[in-house]
Amino acid sequence: MNKVKKTILLGVFVSQALILSIIESWIPIPAPVPGVKLGLANIITIITIMFFGFREAISVVFVRCVLSSIFGGGGWMLFLFSISGGVLSTVVMSVLYKSGRNKFSITGISIAGAIAHNIGQILVAAFFMKDLAVAVVLPVLLVSGSIMGFFVGLVSGFLEGALRRTRIFD
Amino acid sequence: MGIVYLIGDYMTKKFAVIILSIVLCIGVLFTSCSYYSSNSYETQEFLMGTVVLQRIYHKNAEMIAKEVNGRIAEIESVMTINKPGGEVNLLNDAAGEEYVNLGKDTLYVLEKARQYSEISNGAFDLTIGPLVESWGVFSNNPKVPSESEIDELLKLVNYKDINIDLENSTAMLAKKGQIVDLGGIAKGFAADEVIEIYKKHGVESAMISLGGNILTLGGKPDGSPWTIGIRNPRGKDGSYIGIISVKDKAVVSSGDYERFFEKDGVRYHHILDPKTGYPADTGLIGTTIVSDISIDADALSTATFVLGLEEGMKLIESLEGIEAVFVTEDKKIYVTDGLKETFIFRDESKEFEYVEKR
Amino acid sequence: MLKKGDLIILGFAIILIAASFIGVSIYKSSGENARKIAVIIKDNQEIKRIDIDAVSEPMEITVLGEYNDIVLVEKGRIRFKEADCPDKVCVNTGWLTEKGDMAVCLPNKTMIKIEGQSDDVDIVTY
Q1: Average pLDDT across chain B, whole number
Q2: One of this protein's Pfam families, by short name (chain A) (predicted)?
């Protein structure tokens, strides 16, 4: 794939991820703790890992986090939370994906990614607020993250099939 | 990043699992075992005839809290009519006689109070002083004034009688015996001033409650909004009927439960209707206003309480960026459209009904 | 769909969730975090600090001032029992049992409070 095409496709991925995170912010989730979310943007991260690789995925995540905190507001803290969760989850998912698709299904990888995301977020929150009490929300986040991760994995699987048929990435 | 990339390429499943385990275990270990104390600072102080509670997230929180308490005490000393001295007392003493020089703070609050008296068509009236004094609702010996006394005093209650000269920083009451009472708005002003102090010191997350008048700065340090319980007007132990989540907002309530006394089996509360001279009796038992600026919320909570559900709702809907929760005597809860998304109806007493559609 | 490695992830997720639940419940019920400390404040001065979970016999504390308040402490709870102030708001507040609960006698400038922050809401407007 030539460089221009790749750049364009990654740009499209970033904007899609951005749109998904905006749509996500419109859907209210009746959760008892902050931080519970659908993680729809993770679909794009998974797809990027599949069709490009770790480095590209990290770039997409990074740009998405920067842009969404510029557009969506929330400030420096929220950016740190989302970037830390995003990076850790991308690392974990890339490692699992590289180590062999025949060993892990996309759903499994997605669940692991969601869990890593939550843990990364909490670690950074605890670090910056110098207060590990924030981790009391971790059980709830992990359970919801696993469930969301499952569905995000399913969707990513369907999307992968559809994208492969388009042959855009050949 | 490059290293991780390489690891990804060559690692076997076993290694992947081990690495993953280590990363995740560290997370769990941290959460389970260690514990730092929170860096939030909380303090309370008796000021402005109520309890002032602050929660500040900042390394110099204690010092900031002290400065805040000093500022509130200063505002109190200027605007009070319950203690001698102060500019409002001077204004009242010179009623019907002469213009009085006033400081910037008093002029601002006076002008705001006059505006809200006008907007609410006198449901909130800054010249309610003579009635408040006669009922003694804030004194230790409240009483029910005679009908003729109330009729006499009603003649003195009229917000149009306050003349404010912003250019010369002076003001005057038209008739002798008139009394300006900023009790329904001064706490709101104080809260706004406090937020400015927080901002000046670079605080990003803090909350202050002046006897239930709440103003929040930012959200909580983790970015989530502050959750604020709306007190059950008929509950005893501080129970509440609903929860709203806010950032950078003022939340102020008025209700017949705050101060009241009973005489011959009748319950008299402290919010007087400037039109009748008696405690407001329009079917509301509690109102809560949410706005950006605390002084607005403070004035409007009193005004809407006096106006009642229909009129109060109309007033709120006519104003930009102001939301409200109304609780009626027949235990129904009404919420303006802008709050419906974040309002959580939670009634432990099971006595109230949330009316979503009117 | 499900592959062998998925079981590892699943198992890991379950262990992690269980561990975090246990960790949090230990954290919540351990040490300083769980103890309920009540403070009595008069004229902006703290005059007494009591670990109300450690109280075995009910006890009364009299706070003297312009008006007088009697504070009653029992195991795990505290309240204004009697007051000779005119409004009796403090007595009507009833028992304080949870962290962050507060009762105030304005005329006497007395306040009792259980230290800490409520799990439920940050603050109540009234």
Answers
A1: 88
A2: Hpre_diP_synt_I
Q: Which of A130, A44, A53 is nearest to B37 (CA)?
A: A130
What is the predicted pLDDT for the residue at C90?
86
B207 touches chain C (CB under 8 A): yes
Could you report the per-residue pLDDT of B172-223, keeping only the tens digit for each? Answer: 999 999 999 999 899 999 999 999 999 999 999 999 999 989 999 999 887 8
H-run or E-run covering C102: strand C102-105
Element containing residue B31 per DSSP (H, E): helix B13-33
Contact C30, C53 (CB under 8 A): no
Question: What CATH number did the domain enclosing B146 receive?
Answer: 1.10.3980.10
B34·A132 Cβ contact <8 A? yes
Chains that touch B (3 or more CB pairs under 8 A): A, C
Residue with tokens 């309480």: B305
Look at residue C119 and tell me if it is in a domain: no
Which residues on neighbouring strands pair with residue A47, listed in sequence order?
none
CB contact, 8 Å: B31 with chain A? yes
The domain tally of chain C equals 2
Q: Is the Cβ–Cβ distance between A47 and A94 less than 8 Å?
A: no
| B159 in Cβ contact with B174 (< 8 Å) | no
Please classify residue B271 by burial: count the beta carbons closer than 10 Å to its beta carbon, then call 0-12 exposed, 13-18 middle and 19+ buried. buried
> Using CB atoms within 10 A of its CB, is residue A109 exposed (0-12), middle (13-18) or buried (19+)?
buried
By C-alpha distance, the chain A residue nearest C121 is: A32
How far is the CA of C123 from the CAs of A131, B15, B217, C102, in angstroms? 21, 49, 14, 11
Q: Which chain C residue's Cα is nearest to B301?
A: C126
- Residue B22's contacts (CB-CB under 8 Å, 6 or more residues apart) are none
Contacting partners of chain A (3+ CB pairs under 8 A): B, C
Give, in order, the Cα–Cα distances in Å from B316 to each of A5, B223, B248, B308, B323: 54, 29, 19, 12, 7
Contact A150, C32 (CB under 8 A): no
The CATH number for C81's domain is 2.60.320.10
* Domain span holding position C51: 36-114
Give the orientation angle of helix B294-307 with respect to helix B104-119, to 10 degrees.
30
Q: Give chain C's end-to-end CA distance (angstroms, integer).
A: 56
Cα(B302)–Cα(B299) distance, rounded to whole angstroms?
Answer: 6
Nearest-CA distance B96 → chain C (Å) = 34
Partnered with residue B226 across adjacent β-strands are: B246
The CATH number for A3-166, chosen from 3.30.420.10, 1.25.40.180, 1.10.1760.20, 3.10.310.50, is 1.10.1760.20
Nearest C-alpha of chain C: how many angstroms from B2? 25
Instruction: Concatenate the DSSP letters of all residues of B252-294 into one string.
Output: EEEETTSSEEEETTEEEES-B-TTTSSB--SSEEEEEEEESSH
Whose tokens are 């420096």? That residue is A76
ipTM of the complex: 0.79
- Residue B17 pLDDT exceeds 60: no
Angle at which helices A3-26 and A42-51 cross, to 10°: 160
Q: What pLDDT was estimated at residue B316? A: 96
User: Can you tell me the distance from the alpha carbon of B345 to that of B354, in angstroms, rounded to the nearest whole number?
Assistant: 7
Contacts across the A-C interface (CB distance below 8 Å):
57
Q: Does C109 touch chain B (CB under 8 A)?
A: yes
* Å between B160 CA and nearest CA of chain C: 30
